[in-house]
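Margin note: ligand = cobalt (II) ion.
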Amino acid sequence: MTHDPNALTNRLLLENKAWSEEILSHDPEYFHTLAKEQRPKFLWIGCSDSRVPAETVVNANPGEIFVHRNIANQVITTDFNCLSVLQYAISVLHVEHIIVCGHYGCGGVQAALSRENSGMMIANKWLLHIKDIYRLHQSELESLPAEQMFRRMIQFNIIEQVNNLAHTSMIQTSWKHRKGPTLHGWVYGLENGLIEELITLDHTAPIEAIYRFID
Ligand code: CO
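Resulting structure:
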């Protein structure tokens, strides 16, 4: 028996064909309409983890959510990838909400808290920012049992990324001129599929003076 090296990707292509045909059978104009423009109201900044697909976990359709994902859902203000997505979402799409959605059991946060995988030189640099968050909350975190500490750390990481968004001149400018978007920090439970809200910041949020770019 010959082994097809592309069997796995061929399955995806077949599934894609079936998906497209299924949608067209209900609405022959579906893709034609969707192709004209996108007007998503949400920017989703999530973890790359395959178990937390943005549209799936909130039952959204194509066209509803503008998505950026990276390891451990970070907003790092020297990351031109995330910043470009943010700029487009704010300046062109005028999204109403930006959601940072992390998840319990996040391998990125776990890796940042350990010294395993010391050979992952690039990924370790990316995760260094999470070690800084640990240091910021070290006394509280170290008072907790291991499992609780991990969950709390995941929450702190999400909250920090929302604060990072608020510290960008892009968000501050947009808040001043159009009083939006609202920023949300959400955590998703792998074990139950549920999301809880940890933090919400809108244009009235106080920004510490050293992080304020716009008066
Ligand atoms: Co993760």
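The chain has a mean pLDDT of 96.
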